[in-house]
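Supplementary Note 3. Input sequence used for the single-chain structure prediction.
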Amino acid sequence: MNKFHQIPTDTFVPVSHDNSYLFNHYDKVANFLAFNLEKNYKNILAKPIQNAYMFDWFSTYENLININEKSKVEAEEQLIKYWEFLEVINAKIKQLSASNEENNINWANLLKKVFNHTDNFIFSNGKDICIVWGWKFDNSKNYKPNIVIDPSKKDEIQINYPIYNPDSITEDSIISEDSPEDLEIQEFIEEEVNTFEDVIVEDIIETEKEEESSFLNFLKWFASNYWWLLLVLAALIILVFVYKTIIYNAI
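The predicted structure, written as discrete structure tokens, is reproduced below.
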């Protein structure tokens, strides 16, 4: 194996698992990557070997360089490979976490700690990637890249927008039939507008329902807490009615 990196033991805080340091689980995790995934990812994990107060990192790959030392384009190419691997391992972690077996849950917790992207450093030789792991690196540079356009396919997805020129508008062009592209754009806009209108109508209906429900809830709350006011009001109405009756008979 090839030594490609070294870190002092007092620079970072080691991560622990099952009352032992995470780096002690290298063989266990490497064998898991080799035999439990569709693709053999064993070599993606760097091997740590303690050398006095230093940790040396080894890999089967040669000429590995920290991707943070590469150009942004090169770094993002390797980050894409890294996140593709994380999608595979995270799917496995999710599967193990859903199990009722304690051993599977323990595996899920172990893998989650090993492949925490903030606690990984990524090294690459331009083709292969290798991960340094096991310490609290607090690395914020392992972001998930946006869609990267392959230069060889750039022309396939490039959109050319027409240049607006008022002088080029003629009567013939105004009354001419729309091109298929224009019709597609128009249909798309109409669909989006209709969808937007449907959403607005649904929001209005939902709001009216919520307001009606809120008013009914208020009436229930008022009746349960201030029922005596209703009795007083009824008594006052009866008194007024009796008073008017007496006055009317007196006249």
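The radius of gyration is 35 Å. Residues 2-132 form one domain.
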